[in-house]
Each structure stands twice: as structure tokens, then as C-alpha cells.
Design goal:
Elements: H1 9-12, E1 22-26, H2 31-42, E2 46-51, H3 54-60, H4 62-71, E3 75-79, H5 85-98, E4 104-107, H6 125-141, E5 150-155, H7 179-201, E6 206-212, H8 226-230, H9 233-236, H10 246-249, H11 251-259, H12 262-265, E7 269-271, E8 274-275, E9 278-279, E10 288-289, H13 295-309
Helix pairs in contact: 2-4, 5-6, 6-7, 7-13
């Protein structure tokens, strides 16, 4: 069946049985994360919900638990703050202690266009949260994949077009801070991380890809101001905005995680439930810029990320 921009999670997963699989989803206390978890649980998956705010996560997880009860799966709620590597390491240690297997990671958590600020480890907040936090989380959990097939989905954005990564100035110490440029750097990093992850894992069937969910009204926009919106690069380029509700926004995540073939999605950028084409025009409503898929750049980012977090993750 062919899916598109209007497809929903339930349509994409129609007839798909996820019974027995273990799926970890970050940012699962609101918006796309909750919908992704609900859809997976409704089809039998056991889901681990990574949330920064446990109280908020408990309330949001009710719909996931109801779906899991109907689908026959399990739900775990665990605390993790992607802006703290100490928290990420504690989280991965706990998951590893309690589980000997993981099949899918959907790196959904993130922040967007925030005022200039730092993570607890001193990194620019968007790059530190959106990329480095997930870089450590995913790599520390990869041993749970064992030698079998697995899937990793990194939530990126059309915003990757705002900027390539700047490996020598990740914290804006040499250039003035600009919220959308920082967001673009982090979203490009999400794609490049998937490219290198896929290269390292594909011989074992462990495939990785990046996903643009579309423009969805979620808490991701909580930091936006009138001035920030006016400075949005796509607004200046007169890019048409097509809004989606969470069931359509999360559809590409579940398609890439559970439906799309490994060779189809591996190392690619996906949107609207298909693989995106390479474009070079900011005004194009769809597509990915080539620098985000550059394998050489992806390896450089991996090396630089290891240096920044002080931890090595060999093949």
C-alpha cells in the first residue's frame, strides 16, 4: 500500500503485529512521542517511555497504557533528561540492567529555537539535547540489539536546511548565537548521526534513518516568540506550510521503524511515509539537502561527538 502526507499511524500499521518487540521512545510525554508510543502499543509492542518530567509522563502515558492493555504489550515509564549526560547514562544503565533485548529506538525528544542557553554539561542546548544526548543514549543501548535486526529512527526536521553542522564551533563561541541556525545544526546532526549509525550496523541488519514528521502543533513550539517566527528562514522564503495533527505527524516515524524495508530507509531521510529526495532549494516543500547525507561528514560528526561527550563507541 502507498502512504503519503495524510496517512495516520493506524493506517500505516494496519495489519502489522508488533507483539514481543521492545521499543524505546524518548520525548514520550507529549505530542508525537505519545502518539508514536500509543500506536506501537496498540499493535502489541512493549514500549519504554523516556520522559524528562515523570509526573507529566504518568498523565500522558494513560492513553499508551490503555492501548497496551488492548494490544497485549507492556509499558515502562523511565526518567531521562537529554540535556544531562549524567541523566542519560543513568537511564541507559537502568534499561540495560533490566533488559537483555531491545528492537527499536525512536529518538523523538527535542527542543526548538530556544533562547541561548546551555545543557548541564555546557553544550549549546539544541545541539546538546537534540544530538549529543541521543548520541550517548543510542550508542550505550546498541549492545541490547545483540546480533539481530534492529531499527533506529532519529527525529530530524525540514529545519536541517537552516544550517550544516559546525564541528569547530558547536557552542557558538566564535559566532553570534541565532536560534534557527542552532536548530538547523542540531537537525542536520540528527540526519548525519543516522547515516553513520546505518553504516556501522547494516551488516547485522541494524538500520538507522532520520525522519521529518511535518509541521505539527506540539509543545516543541513552546519557546517561539513573534520575533523568532519572523526570523524563520522558511517564512522569509515563502515556503508553504501544511499542518498535520499528531497521528499524521507520527506516521512517518512508525513507517520508518516498522514498515519500510531496511534497504529502503537505511541511511536515508524520510518524510510523508517515503524516502525524501535530495533538493537544493530552501523553498521546496519537501526534500533533504545533500550535506545532511554526506557519509564523510557523518563520520567526522561521530568522531567530534565522541570527543565532546568523552566516551568512545567503536563499531
Amino acid at each position: 500500500m502507498t502512504f503519503g502526507s495524510a496517512s495516520t499511524t493506524d493506517e500505516v500499521l494496519d495489519g502489522v503485529d508488533l507483539s514481543g518487540t521492545w521499543v524505546l521512545i524518548t520525548g514520550a510525554s507529549a505530542g508525537l512521542g505519545v502518539e508514536t508510543a500509543r500506536a506501537a502499543a496498540a499493535h502489541g509492542a512493549n514500549v519504554i517511555l523516556g520522559v524528562r518530567d515523570v509526573e507529566k509522563g504518568e498523565a500522558a502515558s494513560e492513553v499508551v497504557r490503555a492501548a497496551a492493555q488492548a494490544g497485549g504489550g507492556l509499558v515502562e515509564l523511565r526518567e531521562v533528561d537529554l540535556a544531562s549526560l549524567e541523566s542519560v547514562r543513568a537511564f541507559t544503565d537502568a534499561v540495560g540492567a533490566d533488559h537483555d533485548r531491545l528492537d527499536t529506538i525512536i529518538a523523538n525528544a527535542g527542543v526548538m529555537a530556544v533562547p541561548e542557553s546551555r545543557t548541564t554539561d555546557g553544550f549549546e542546548l539544541q545541539f546538546g539535547t537534540n544530538h549529543l544526548g541521543h548520541f550517548v543514549l543510542v550508542n550505550r543501548l546498541r549492545p541490547l540489539f545483540g546480533s539481530g535486526p534492529a531499527r533506529i529512527v532519529n527525529l530530524s526536521s525540514r529545519g536541517h536546511r537552516f544550517s550544516d553542522v559546525e564541528l569547530d564551533d558547536v557552542n557558538f563561541e566564535a559566532t553570534p548565537y541565532e536560534p534557527w541556525q542552532a536548530y538547523g545544526r542540531s537537525k542536520t546532526a540528527n540526519v548525519l548521526f543516522a547515516v553513520e549509525l546505518d553504516r556501522r550496523g547494516r551488516d547485522r541488519g541494524q538500520r538507522a534513518c532520520a525522519v521529518h514528521p511535518g509541521t505539527v502543533p506540539t509543545e516543541l513550539s513552546r519557546y517561539l516568540t513573534h520575533e523568532t517566527l519572523e526570523s524563520l528562514p522558511t517564512a522569509r522564503a515563502n515556503v508553504e506550510t501544511v499542518w498535520k495533527e499528531p497521528p499524521a505527524g507520527a506516521a512517518t516515524s512508525v513507517w520508518a521503524a516498522f514498515v519500510g524495508g531496511g534497504d529502503e530507509v537505511g541511511g536515508r531521510y524520510c518524510e510523508d511515509c517515503h524516502v525524501g529526495e535530495i533538493v537544493d532549494d530552501l523553498a521546496s516543500p519537501t526534500g533533504v539537502f545533500a550535506y545532511a547525507l554526506d557519509p564523510g561528514r557523518a563520520r567526522q560528526l561521530w568522531t567530534r561527538s565522541e570527543e565532546l561527550v568523552g566516551e568512545s563507541f567503536p563499531d
